[in-house]
Amino acid sequence: MTRGRFAPSPTGRMHLGNVFCALLSWLSAKSKGGEWVLRIEDLDPQRSKREYALQLMDDLQWLGLAWDGDPVWQSQRGDIYEQYLKQLATMQMIYPCYCTRADIMATQAPHETDGRIVYKGTCRPEHHSVQSSIPSPPDSLSPSENSLASTLISQAATIRLMVPDENIPFVDGHYGEQSINLTEHCGDYIIRRKDGAWAYQLAVVIDDALMGVNEIVRGRDLLLSSPQQIHLRKVLFPNIHEAVNFIHHPLLCNMQGQRLCKRDKSMDLGFMRQEGKTAKEIIGYLAHLAGITEKAYDASPQELLPLFSWHKISREDIQVE
Ligand code: GLU
Fold first, then answer.
1. Nearest CA owner, ligand 1 atom 6
2. In this predicted model, what pLDDT tens digit does every residue of 121-166 receive, in sequence order?
3. Measuring from atom 7 of ligand 1, which residue has the nearest CA?
4. Nearest residue to 180 (alpha-carbon basis) of 112, 230, 123
5. Of residues 179, 285, 160, the one with CA closest to residue 232
6. Is 156 exposed, middle or buried (0-12, 13-18, 19+ CB in 10 A)?
7. Complete DSSP assignment for 225-267
8. DSSP string, 61-78
9. Residue 20, domain CATH
10. Of 76, 98, 121, 211, which alpha carbon lies 20 to 30 A from 112's?
């Protein structure tokens, strides 16, 4: 059975871009008779307020995007993430990194102009090179392994995962075949921040696996982070053979071609609700923008189900007037 998920990092009322993502992921899972689960990605203690998550849930309910089961809150799952981090420590796949941002910037090659930061492995222990065969995870940690792992993770250092220097191929459900070399694309990436906050990549992979998620629909800005997750899932969950179906969608942009964000007040759901817009109006409008309907008309998510197909959705970003 398909189990899709919506995994927002709440920052207040939803904006049209979040609603678009939620609608497509809901339609994709439900049109296959599947389930749609909600995960609140409130990992960053500075930015994630409970009231924002409650507003987001209120928005989803108002829109008619009902989720199955209880929402999962990442802020309550630190113990689970720590267990898996310890597992990675005993597999010798992680290490502490003491580089400052300035140190990392100083190692960037001049051609890397797309804003990506590639970590060159400055702190990677010399005797550790990543073999293409991944060591098996331990069934349970012995007391000495446990204390070794605890020492590593108690340090006030960024923790990075060693990545292999090989291509990770995958087929995106909407953008087709992709292949990324993690060493070239991002290098050893962060799985726990220096201040102890869990990094997005670690938490997402663990949660998707433990929640039985097998379909991930999200904005195409996250397309190239999928191989990081595919790799980490293989490392942490070698016994789960079912691959996750990644499906990325085009982004909504404003008239200047920039991705919609919270600053575009008129695209904020709180504002739209105050202006008297109805849920069906907004859903119908987005369905039309997506290409699901030929004309914009008021519709509930349920009413769109028989019309939905990924073939109708464009791959180009979509401008919102
Ligand atoms: N929490 C992420 C965000 O709001 C999305 C994560 C995901 O769908 O993988 O951007």
1. 7
2. 999 998 666 666 677 777 777 777 777 778 877 788 999 999 999 9
3. 7
4. 230
5. 160
6. exposed
7. GHHHHHHHHHHH-TT--PPPEEEEEPPEE-TTSPBP-TT-GGG
8. HHHT-PPSSPPEEGGG-H
9. 3.40.50.620
10. 98
Domain count along the chain = 1
Cβ neighbours around 241 below 10 Å, total: 6
Q: Per the structure block, which two tokens stand in for 216?
A: 């991930």
Q: Which residues pair with 97 in a beta bridge?
A: 158
- Give the relative orientation of helices 50-63 and 16-30 as an angle to the nearest 10 degrees: 60
Q: How big is the CA angle at 188 (ends 187 and 194), to the nearest 5 degrees?
A: 125
pTM of the model: 0.93
Residue range 111-132, pLDDT digits in tens: 555 778 899 999 999 866 666 6
Cβ–ligand 1 contact at 218 (below 6 Å): yes
Query: Is the distance from the beta carbon of residue 204 to the nearest atom of ligand 1 less than 6 Å?
Result: yes
Query: Is ligand 1 within 6 A of the CB of residue 7?
Result: yes
By residue range, what is the domain housing residue 197? 1-321
Q: Is 15 in the pocket of ligand 1 (CB under 6 A)?
A: no
What residue type is assigned to position 73 of the chain? W
Q: Which residues contact 226 (CB under 8 A, 6 or more apart)?
A: 170, 172, 178, 216, 246, 248
